[in-house]
UniProtKB/TrEMBL annotation:
The keyword Signal applies. Keywords: Hydrolase, Signal. Residues 1-19 form the signal peptide. This is M20/M25/M40 family metallo-hydrolase. One of its GO terms (biological process) is proteolysis. PANTHER family: METALLOPEPTIDASE M28 FAMILY MEMBER, PEPTIDASE M28 DOMAIN-CONTAINING PROTEIN. Residues 95-294 form the Peptidase M28 domain. Residues 338-407 form the PDZ domain. It comes from Dyadobacter flavalbus. It comes from the Bacteria. The keyword Ion transport does not apply. GO terms for molecular function: metalloexopeptidase activity.
Length: 408
């Protein structure tokens, strides 16, 4: 997953947990396969990703989903171009698309990206000397892909014809810039006019009591505020919300086509884009609770008298939404933090922040003379600098305020 989120408000729930609808053991089984060394990190268009695509397609087929890719298959191929050590490569990636046809007029899209960073030659690894090291991506995004598979099994096997059709899409190329979802929305296999909304799952495997669940796209439809809080209470899920429909995951591609979107995410962590993002750190019970919430949302959408209305969401970031900057601090932002400034969740060794003396838990309140009120302010600063630039950072560390010099 790539991040560009601003989390705006916090809601808490205190009621008892509803009985689980999803089996943590089944969730474990999928993640263990998708994040196994055998798949070598599922780099876009690699053999490991092709094996993952075949696994997903087989499950779609066994669930009775109709092929909804190209040429009557489950696969929607598209070209990707990227450089490795300065050498350009043109390869073929594939979205995997299955369709549950309930004979309805409208279709809900459920998505997750199944690609990751492979062996460190593509994407943005945060592990030093990462090349030729397998990045298994158990949370990012074997967890979301597993959610896709479990929801497909649930709705195809429940012997109920919901009031929506459901299109299940496993996207490739997300780590290279949302390539698979962009391609789908430009070449849809189900007309965009028929799509009611898009539900995205990106990194849902690390639910913790301190961060809770993070829900993005809240401002893209009033339906989310109406339907989700009660569902979260039933699962005893504490959550933050992000109003914007523009983030660095695949829901963005649909929002930009004026489709209501909602994304589920359990927050950043120190293993993000590192070789240490492994199965042992997944909260399988937590993911089961999240999937119960999402299944309940899909069911509630079918009971509404009208489709979720689209609205343009508040998005305080007016600059470049890409995370492909020329410079980096080498930090993981704490995406559950809702206060002023940017709180650091992790610092990568030997990167600019580490060299400047920044620590996990520091809150950046000013960078290069610009006040940092949100992650978008931080991104604006990164986007305006080049490697070698020297800037001052002002930090809040506990009750102290510190100033450090940063060299990008």
């Amino acid at each position: 997953m790539k991040y560009t989120y601003l989390f705006l408000s916090l809601l808490t729930a205190t009621v008892s947990v509803q009985a689980q609808d999803f089996d943590p053991a089944a969730i474990r089984k999928h993640i263990e396969y998708l994040a196994s060394d055998d798949l070598e990190g599922r780099g876009t268009a690699t053999m490991g990703e092709i094996r993952a695509a075949n696994y997903i397609a087989d499950i779609f087929k066994n669930a009775g989903l109709k092929p909804a890719g190209a040429d009557g298959s489950y696969f929607q191929p598209f070209q990707v171009s990227f450089a490795i050590d300065g050498n350009p490569h043109l390869l073929t990636a594939r979205n995997v698309v299955g369709y549950l046809d309930n004979g309805a007029k409208k279709t809900i899209v459920i998505g997750a990206h199944y690609d990751h960073l492979g062996k460190g030659f593509q994407g943005s690894s945060l592990t030093p000397d990462s090349k030729n090291k397998i990045h298994n991506g158990a949370d990012d995004n074997a967890s979301g892909t597993t959610g896709l598979l479990e929801l497909a099994a649930r709705f195809s096997g429940n012997k109920i014809s919901e009031k929506h059709n459901i299109l299940f899409i496993a996207f490739s190329g997300e780590e290279l810039g949302l390539l698979g979802s962009k391609y789908f929305t430009e070449n849809p296999t189900v007309s965009l006019d028929q799509i009611s909304c898009m539900i995205n799952m990106d990194m849902i495997g690390r639910l913790s009591s301190d961060k809770g669940l993070i829900i993005s796209g809240w401002g893209t439809s009033p339906a989310w505020g109406k339907l989700i809080p009660d569902l979260a209470k039933k699962q005893n899920l504490r959550f933050n919300v992000d109003s914007s429909g523009v983030g660095a995951s695949d829901h963005t591609s649909f929002y930009l086509k004026n489709i209501p979107v909602v994304q589920f995410f359990t927050g950043g962590h120190s293993d993000y884009h590192k070789i240490s993002d492994d199965v042992a750190k997944i909260n399988f019970q937590g993911e089961a609770s999240i999937l119960s919430l999402i299944a309940g949302l899909i069911e509630k959408l079918g009971n509404e008298s009208a489709e979720p209305p689209f609205q343009t969401a508040e998005n305080p970031h007016s600059g470049n939404t890409s995370t492909d900057f020329k410079v980096t601090l080498g930090i993981m932002p704490d995406y559950s933090y809702s206060g002023k400034g940017l709180r650091i969740d992790a610092v990568t060794k030997a990167r600019p922040a580490d060299k400047a003396g920044m620590l996990t838990g520091d809150i950046i309140i000013k960078l290069a003379g610009k006040e940092i009120g949100s992650i978008y302010d931080y991104m604006d600063v990164l986007g305006s600098h080049e490697k070698g630039d020297q800037v001052e950072a002002e930090l809040r560390r506990g009750t102290e305020t510190k100033k450090v010099q940063v060299t990008f």
